[in-house]
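Please predict the structure of the following assembly.
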Amino acid sequence: MEFFSHQTSFPFMATRRVWYGLSALLMVVSLTSFFVRGLNLAIDFTGGVSAEVRFPQAANVDAVRAALVAGAFREPQVQSFGSSRDIAIRLPPQPQSATEIRTRLVAAVQGVDAGAQVAQLDVVGPQVGNELKWSAIEALGFTVFGIFAYIAVRFHTWRLSFGAILAVLHDPILVLGFFSLTQMSFDLAVVAAMLAVIGYSLNDTVVVFDRIRERFETNRRSPPAAVLDQSINQTLSRTIMTKVVTSIVVVALLFLGGPVLKGFSAALLIGIIAGTYSSIYISSAIALDCGLTAEHVFPSVKKAALDHLP
Amino acid sequence: MLEYARWKYVLVAAVLLLALLFALPNFFGEDPALQVARKDHANITADAEKALETFLAQKHIRFDKSYIDSGRLMVRFASVAEQLGARDAVNEEYKGTYISALSFAPRTPEFFRALGLRPMPLGLDLRGGLYLLYQVDVNSAVSQALEGYTQDARRALAAANIPVKEVTTVAVGSDKTNALRIVLPPEADVTKARAALATPLQGLTISTESLASGSGITGVMTTAQIRERQDYAIQQNITTLRNRVNELGVSEPIVQRQGIDRINVQLPGVQDSADVKDILGRVATLEFRLEDMQNNAVEAQQTGHVPLGSKLYTHTRFGRPVLLKREVIATGDQLTNATSGQSQEGPSVNVRLDARAGENMLRTTRQNLNRRMAVVLIEKRRETLTIDGKPVAREVTDEEVINDATIRGVFGNSFQITGLGAGEARELALLLRSGSLATVIYEVEERAVGPSLGRDNIDKGVTALIVGMMGVFLFMAIYYKTFGLVADLVLLANVVLLTALLSMMRASLSLPGIAGIILTVGMAVDANVLIYERIREEIRKGVSPQAAIRAGFEKAFSAITDSNVTTLIAGVVLWVLGTGPIRGFAVVLTLGIMTSMFTSLMGSRAVLTLMYGGRRKLARLSI
């Protein structure tokens, strides 16, 4: 079986203005939403209380909320998740100790239904949350920097590096936009997923660039746009195949992994789709608009014998 | 003809066999179990095991098997319900003698355990338990040190008859207090003052300046000294927490430093945080006191008549009664350091007190040569009792003599305790430190996961893993036919190799870790896809099948390594900067990239060469 039985020849370079436009639109929407609506940060970053309560039968969300308010908890957010018997409770940082919070919380929910059990209780101090926020930003910064450095060394011309960097920034911004628009809970695991997305997104771009380097080596005379089109078309089957397979596992994770991994797998899925798009439509096109020609790609002599491979 | 060096076949086979051996213990699963330990840390005997088994049988609690593992009894159950029932029954019946903790016992056969092969430990999110993060107030540790220096400086100057205007602690070149400033009146002799301060302020960076009101001497703690002080405070708290956690009897607890000033405590199987925190949150202090040598301690214990002005204690280690005078020579907050070391008389504990306690000690030892002095460890804790069906909290004070020794000489703020074994010296130093003014710690994070939720998380993770893998296997087999099956085999080998590495590292597996494994399965396919697509391209060009395979591996190599490096960068950053479950994910991601490179570059080449390498007539490939 093959997705493309014959070698495709889609004119990616000729139509690049369209894709730039689409990307620009998505970026604007994502960034606007991010700055206007912000993210629904989980207690990992804000500090506060998050609890999961299991009821013996379907729980009344409003009754639970009322009980919490009566129990002197400020601004409780109560929603059911998974099933109607599972209730998630989110509270802003509380002045009391974790032990006190637990006692009062148990009393409040058991007032609604004596059989209610607190299955999970997380209490994060506000300063821990603030620190985690910084360390997440730090991690993102280090990753982007490390990848920039790698690209700069790996592709001898800034034109390719610039294309790769724009594509790398493009994908996590879309993920941020998605989380901002849907107001899905943004927790530490989502940050981990975003870093993985940055890695994966670049992975595709690198494979395309690898092919561009190879094509330039053999077709020094061809116009650059044609060489880029050929390279993308020749790697298209692999790009799509790999992403389909990765998406299979991520979809399995999204639907079967339970609520804990929901945000994580959603971030991965969005990121993988965005990454595939940006490495096909954006990264090479940018390099072309930066004036990439065969001269810029120093063809390395790659005549290594097979036996030198592992 | 396709060829592959023989040693590479051997390497691939050896690595995979070894991996299979290490990964195997993970596939047997775990039973809910109850771990029973004696409160006094003694080993549980075979007789006690029988008694406990009979007890459980009487209570109609069914258990599968029980065995003694390093002095503790492990009882396995078929279900969590029986496990919980047994815990409650044992806790009720043996409250004074045993502590029991919920645990999991791997179903791995004895053979593996004997070889030291164990399954990956499960993280708290998968087995249930309590995670606590404490913040240590390291700045107060530094302030305490400065306070000590201040007192010493005042005393030294007073002894040298140098007038002092004021001594304050200040921040020099930092936003935190790190120095002390002594202001002398104009008539004071600064050179003399500096000479007098040389010993008490040893190690500080000292500078002098002239002020309008006189002259100032500033002593700044070096960065190294501050760090040492902070490390000492953290270490002291870790030791204390570790001792107390051991008392809880939890199986496989973790107490470790996190970052500069945090300590995380992980207690698998623990549900009730209130009980735990009563024990962990105890406040301890020390008292140095003279022994009452005029009266007989044994007699006092037997008659219950304690002489006036004395108090009866029990020696922690020897269990014998000790009669101590009520006057306190020095207390824990005056102890500045206690370390174990070697003296001419064998192992010893070197104790340092602050200046005030040192003077008291000097006076006491001068008058009481050859009498005995004891150290009492006092711990305050909260205990919840059930009175008339209602929980009542009360404060309990435990007091025990941790050491008593004869005063052999006259000493001040620095002395040695000798006549101990090496282990005893270390233990005593730890106890002394745990009773010295502990730096304040406070809880900043608490995460509790119930056991049933943990079970759910495992089930969900494993289901997602199996379904995801099946989907990938099927898709690869349909898309690449025989080659797809080879890729599936390689993928399976990759999961085995990854599991083996994680088990060897004893890295605990969390839900994000399982997600990492699933993701690795998805991404590991990539290398195979790159190779296969190249082979297809070559075939389309009309190259012979075997040459196509060779060219496929050759040409895909640079793309595979390049593209994996990028993910590796993200993985390593997360590994270094992440904590807890995020680090778990990063570890799996990073190792998964490496194992998938190995299996797809070497493993699949070995298999394909074995399959197609020797065939002379190979018309077409099933790809």
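The radius of gyration of chain B is 33 Å. Chain B has four domains: 6-25+450-612, 30-107, 129-281, 283-423.
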